[in-house]
Design a protein that fits this description.
401 residues; alpha/beta; TIM Barrel; binds S-adenosylmethionine; binds iron/sulfur cluster
């Protein structure tokens, strides 16, 4: 009952979001502790299930993109300390290592970076490629494995990754002192609990540093339909979680598990604020959220010296809910944190405690299902990817959902 009500409320609140497509003035965002996300939208082929902004690789477009990205970093004028940089996509490891390093060098002209992660498809992370990434201070990899069951991958038109390839990447990365996360998808067609358990056991044997078990979602923009219920997917994740935890991993949040040496800092850690560069990248700073336009409008605007974006100003109340949701997702929620929240959130927290969703400052199994289901709804209802505005040359226009 509470799950259904919360899902309805979330869907309704997303339906009323209103973004403005505007030139964004970033000058006032200086020295503060933030993360940086860089979006590389190119892929060798487009997976049918994928909701992210991605395009087929094409060298001319990639060259114009790189030119725009370097210019955007200068135009934004962000300076200061950066906790982490995450290079995501798309498939960032389709870029040459020196292109990745060039982006990082440009960033380093502006900010000091503590920690750099890159994600990508396993088959491009060769030993030589990793060595070059490591030389420009990338210390974490996230590889898209999805499943080791070929039948399921075929149905969603995803190319296959053998265990031997993952083993080689993990060994090479470990030799260099890098850590590795693997993204798995749970709830794929013809994928059963026993398949997920077999996969996580194999990955644990390879001494992978982190496993992310994402529920198969049908996000706006994606072609494939989810063929099973959110509840069934949750049960599969929980059964896999028992095995993963038995093999020495710590549960970081509803879907991510890390080896203890990483337990305080996840590869996909979500900080309070981050700046996104590149087409369709998100930025969240203070109450402001900005989403960059898709690739061609992005390149066009930036090369003309304009940092255009879809922006929305969330009020303090919305931000408090967002912080609360993050704590729940991380499964740890202290009484002191709850006390610092507005009255409406304190009331909901008390309800969650009364219903057994939170106990001793931890989210219980019942609570985990609630968060899993709610987060799945959020992903499936998000009004993204935001399309390019239809009429160009307009200084500021409203976009409704
Ligand atoms: C955006 S991809 C980037 C890495 C690389 N392009 C790849 O596919 O391996 C990162 C991850 O998003 C996850 N993902 C993409 N579409 C998804 C969906 N519909 N449901 C759940 N996870 C999804 C997959 O686990 C994928 O590995
Ligand atoms: S899952 Fe990865 S490779 Fe597939 S389309 Fe999405 S970003 Fe590209």
């Amino acid at each position: 009952m509470i799950n259904r009500t919360a899902n309805r409320m979330v869907s309704k609140s997303f339906a009323s979001l209103e973004y403005e497509y505007c030139k964004i003035d970033w000058d006032h965002f200086t020295t503060r502790e933030i993360g940086i996300y860089i979006h590389v939208p190119f892929c060798p082929r487009l997976c049918a299930f994928c909701p992210f902004h991605r395009v087929l690789y094409n060298r001319q477009q990639k060259d114009r993109y790189l030119k725009a990205l370097l210019k955007e970093i200068d135009l934004r004028g962000i300076y200061g300390e950066v906790e982490w940089v995450y290079i995501g996509g798309g498939t960032p490891n389709l870029l040459k290592p020196d292109e990745i390093c060039m982006i990082l060098d440009k960033l380093k002209e502006h900010v000091n970076i503590e920690d750099i992660t890159i994600e990508g498809k396993p088959r491009y992370f060769t030993r030589e490629y990793l060595e070059q990434l490591y030389a420009c201070e990338i210390s974490k990899l996230s590889i898209g494995v999805e499943s080791l069951k070929e039948e399921s991958l075929d149905i969603v038109e995803r190319d296959k990754t053998g265990v031997s390839l993952i083993e080689e990447i993990v060994n090479d990365a470990h030799d260099l002192g890098m850590v590795v996360n693997a993204d798995l998808m749970v709830g794929l067609p013809k994928q059963y609990s026993k398949d997920v358990i077999r996969d996580v056991k194999k990955l644990a044997d390879l001494e992978l540093d982190q496993m992310s078990t994402y529920p198969f979602t049908k996000a706006p923009g994606a072609k494939n339909r989810r063929r099973t219920t959110s509840k069934h997917i949750f049960e599969m994740i929980e059964k896999a979680a028992d095995v993963i935890e038995e093999t020495g991993y710590v549960r970081e949040n509803v879907w991510v598990f890390s080896r203890p040496k990483l337990a305080t800092k996840s590869l996909t850690e979500d900080p309070k604020e981050y700046i996104g560069y590149g087409p369709s990248a998100f930025s969240v700073v203070g109450n402001l959220q900005v989403v960059n336009p898709h690739i061609e409008n992005y390149i066009d605007a930036i090369l003309h010296g304009r940092t255009m974006g879809f922006k929305i100003d969330f009020d303090e109340g919305f931000n408090a809910w967002r912080r609360f949701a993050h704590r729940l997702y991380d499964l740890r929620i202290s009484d002191d944190f709850i006390k610092s929240m507005p009255r409406s959130i304190r009331w909901v927290s008390n309800m969650l405690k009364l219903m057994g969703y939170i106990k001793d400052e931890r989210v219980t199994r019942k609570g985990r299902y609630f968060i899993h289901d709610l987060t799945t709804t959020v992903i499936e209802k998000l009004p993204f990817p935001l399309g390019n505005p239809v009429s160009r040359g307009v200084a500021c226009m409203n976009i409704f959902f």
